[in-house]
Amino acid sequence: MDVIKEQILVVDDEEDLRKAIVGILTLDGYEADEAGSAEEATEKMSHTAFDVLITDYSLPGKTGVDLLEASLDRYPEIIGVVITAIQVGRTVDYGPEGTPRTPITI
């Protein structure tokens, strides 16, 4: 019996990080592809209906949020994860114990 694996697209302009994430996902049994820019990701998504999009926030030309929004227009069921190593002006509300309150709005 064939098992259908979820297809994940990882988008980051930092090649080493992108390849590391793809490697981990592949080892965990996912079908993972990669793109180094929003434009390359858009091209790949025109040929493949990915289940999950993992994208860096800071990309050349567009932000990861722009890419995710465009992806949702075409694939409303796609799951999007936007990652970043920089502060983008949004904060997390911490409770009295120093832990994030739920739900977390980023």
What is the element layout, followed by pairings?
Elements: E1 7-11, H1 15-27, E2 31-35, H2 38-45, E3 52-56, H3 64-74, E4 79-83
Parallel strand pairs: 1-2, 1-3, 3-4
Task: State the gist of this model.
The protein has 106 residues and is an alpha/beta fold. It contains 3 helices and 4 strands, in the order E-H-E-H-E-H-E.
CATH architecture: 3-Layer(aba) Sandwich
**Rg over C-alpha atoms, rounded to the nearest angstrom:** 15 Å
| Shape field | globular
The fraction of residues in strands falls at 15-25%
Mean pLDDT: 83
| Tally of DSSP helical segments | 3
What is the CATH fold-level name? Rossmann fold
N→C terminal distance: 40 Å
- Secondary-structure-derived class: alpha/beta
Largest sheet: 4 strands, parallel
- Main sheet strand line-up: 2-1-3-4
How many domain regions?
Answer: 1
What is the helical fraction, as a range of percent? 25-40%
The CATH homologous superfamily name equals: Response regulator
Instruction: Give, in order, the helices and strands.
Output: EHEHEHE
Unreliable spans: 100-106
Report on this model:
The radius of gyration is 15 Å and the shape is globular. 30% of the residues lie in helices and 19% in strands. The protein has a single domain, classed as Rossmann fold. The protein has helices at 15-27, 38-45, 64-74, and strands spanning 7-11, 31-35, 52-56, 79-83. It is of the alpha/beta class and 106 residues long. Strands 2-1-3-4 form a 4-stranded parallel sheet, sandwiched between helices. The chain contains 3 helices and 4 strands.
